[in-house]
Amino acid sequence: MATGLSTQLTRQIGEHLVTAELGRRQVIGTPFAGNVPDIDILAFANGISAPIQVKAINGISWQFDVRSFLDVIPTEKGQKVNGLKDLNRKIICIFVVVGKNLGEDTFYIFQLGWLQDYFRSHYGEGRQLPKNIKSFHCAIWKKDLEQHLGKWEVIEHEFKL
Known about the structure:
By secondary structure, the protein is of the alpha+beta class. The chain is built from 3 helices and 9 strands; from the N terminus they run αββββββββαβα. It has one domain: Trna Endonuclease, Chain: A, domain 1 (3-Layer(aba) Sandwich). A hairpin with a 2-residue loop joins β2 and β3.
């Protein structure tokens, strides 16, 4: 089980890996060290600025509360999805799997709207109810993000590189 320290180190490493890679791609990135909700890095290039959300792990999946993405309420028989939460679907997300050694890291790049749609399609009707119907836990695994592996074109498109 991850400790508070290891979780914080993973988060820090992930944000700085992304900031460094943005620099290699001629994009200035300033990390906020967890002080700004929903934004980990503010990036700038070619007169364009954009927020970036970074989620880093050294395991196999990223964990969330589904209520960050969906309007979900508990019912007597389980849970009901009433629709999507109102969020900025264009925020760039970079999910990082932190490797044991330098250069062994992997990056998955996409927009937040894709992740919201993923949870809508996987959390809605037909989903096996959790043992605790008051649980709003959800997760996404590396295998589900393969189409976004190394998609730095998302950054190139955003900043007209």
